[in-house]
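re the bet — no i am not wrong, look at it urself. input seq straight from the record:
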Amino acid sequence: MNISIFGLGYVGVVCCACFSKEGHNVIGVDIERAKVDLINNGKATIIEGGLEEQIQDSVSKNLLSATQDYKLAVLNSEISFVCVGTPSLANGSINLAYIYDVVKQIATVIKEKNSFHTIVIRSTVKPGTLKVCKEIIEDISGKKDGESFGVVSNPEFLREGTAMKDFINPPYTVIGTTSQRSLNALNDLYKNIKAPVYSIKPEEAEMIKYANNNFHAMKITFANEIGNICKANNVDGHVVMDLVAKDTKLNLSPYYLKPGFAFGGSCLPKDVRGLTNQAKNLDLQTPLLSSLIESNNYQIQKGLELIYDTGKRKIGFLGFAFKSGTDDLRESPIVEVIETLIGKGFDLKVYDSNVHLSSLLGKNKEYVNSHIPHIYKLLKENVDDVIENSDVLVIGNNAKEFSKILPTISSEKIIIDLVRVDKNLTSKDNYIGICW
């Protein structure tokens, strides 16, 4: 393929080297003469293992060149990658000016082209950026998205120091576009990359890099806070965190990484409070760990706001143990929601096939009798009774029966799903998902 790459910084120059290594004809574009000259002389613009050798090889084979002439680059390519910087502004927001400047340049050339052109945003951008780029190109070129051009969000997952290896061995390739022609072109371009390809909505593709990097930052901060507490207790933090990382069933897995409602139960809230209290007694600051309960409470408030926003007073709860397959009501976040609504005078009905006073044993029975007997009185044995006599139905846990019931519920009733019993549903019409 013929490819133009705008921006010869870290991401752009690695893309130049790796795409040309695959045999594609690549033209690098930059406003800085010095970077253009470096590439044309077989030199790298950054320090990265194996990069300069590949640039030198690609230039010698006439597969890679660089220019300041954006018009020349677009006219002689079918795909343009935008790899310019998106620095932070003083208030922390992202500066997209360089992205839009390049897109405007490309749009003026597309106006003159007769062939289809794909514009790929490789830089890290906020959700909605691709939509703005599409509108800019349509306005300047007078041509229509999907007919004369296509726009794509294709985030990179490159680490400094291992960028060349990461390019050919990424965790996955993400392609966000509404253009089938552009999707086909990107699939063809990455066909030799041995990694799964995920075709998703543009806004989802734009969000993934932020989610990844913030997750990495959170993990580093978490390990540091645990390490500080370990050292204060004369414990080797590396031994502890090495074992944490060896648990791929729960710790390093998708298990606790699905957006939804608040955590609860007899372990997590208690142990978060216990550890942060330990840290406080040791005169240690744990901003991340200390924020967990506050963030969890915010998610409970989000669930309440969804209910308030319906304007309805007759609310039915399907599932109120803290997770399906258990009768454990201790620190169930759904219990807190129900108690708040009782205090505000809502008409409530509750159903949970696992929660019946006659079958509760031990601490669960004791908890119901001593803490929430008023809620137990709202419990109905028949789920149909709850559905028929409620205007709003709140799905509180992931019991299998609720996924089967969901399609049978009348469209006149509002459904608020806190757990996503059907992963194919997103908020629309009478169905409201808390995070989807």
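see?? The chain has a mean pLDDT of 94. told u. also Residues 202-257 form one domain. so pay up
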